[in-house]
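User: Can you predict the 3D structure for this chain?
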Amino acid sequence: MEISENTKNPYSGGEWVYLESDKSVMVKISISNPNGMLEYYLKDNPHRQFIHYSKVKPITDYNLISELEKNYSGETGLLG
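Assistant: Here is the predicted structure, written as structure tokens:
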């Protein structure tokens, strides 16, 4: 699915995505802002991170999502 800059942000908080630049970085969106910026957290960095929605792709493998959820801490927003 190609996402153009003119398309509304298709993501919402709670969705799992991977970074287009590095497929090994999988994150759960904390907040999806109206300006197209997604907020998320990394395991190694407790500070919130931001990325534009056009720079991520959705994770659609339900087995992978299930595994990610098992290792996810909802309180801190971190994997691990």
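The beta strands are 16-19, 22-28, 31-32, 37-42, 45-52, 56-58, 72-73, 78-79. Residues 16-72 form a domain with the SH3 type barrels. fold (CATH 2.30.30).
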